[in-house]
Amino acid sequence: MTLTPFFEAPPVIQLHIVAALAALTLGPVALLRRSRDRLHRLAGRIWVAAMAVTALSSFFIYTIRVVGPFSPIHVLSVVTLAGLWEGLRHIRAGRMADHRRTMLSLYVFGMGIPGLFTLLPGRIMSAILFPATPWAGFWFVCGALALAGFLWGVWRPDHLRLLLRRA
User: Fold this and answer.
1) Are the C-beta atoms of 16 and 54 separated by less than 8 Å?
2) How far apart are CA 106 and CA 87, in angstroms?
3) DSSP state for residue 120 in the 8-state scheme
4) Cα–Cα separations (whole angstroms), residue 40 to 45, 77, 95, 100, 118
5) How far is CA 165 from CA 117, 158, 160, 161, in A?
6) What is the pLDDT of residues 97-129, one digit of tens each?
7) Worst-scoring range by mean pLDDT, 60-64, 137-141, 162-166?
8) Residue 89: CA count within 13 A, CB half-sphere
9) Buried/exposed 29-44: b ≥16 CB within 10 Å, e otherwise
10) For residue 82, pLDDT beyond 80
């Protein structure tokens, strides 16, 4: 691992990386704490801010250009900002289940999918984390995400309840 690519990156990319890493680490704290818990609310507020900074800063990163200066990842940034707004509307209206579902989806799809693509060879995060073996790092993360998705599908609480009822 080397931080040289991070320090050589433009400031907007550095901001983007720091905000994304903050959102990545705070997401589980906010998602796994009891709702209305003080730590849940604090982590959630910081997580929303970090996600917003990550999405907004992406509009100033033009390393992949498909339509003018924009790429398909910018569509995800718009969806993320809309999802953050929707999640905040749900909690203000007292719709806890909708809030939780929206925020969990944002964490998984707003962090997981773009996070996977940042590990493609030639990208800064790939150069930071896997400087010697970029493809090995990408495929390792693909495998880890596939395993996590499989385990989540098998061991979700609603599946466990069904298994316990049958026993």
Assistant:
1) yes
2) 9
3) S
4) 8, 24, 16, 12, 28
5) 40, 11, 9, 6
6) 899 889 988 988 888 888 888 888 888 888 898
7) 162-166
8) 7
9) ebbebeeeeeebeebb
10) yes
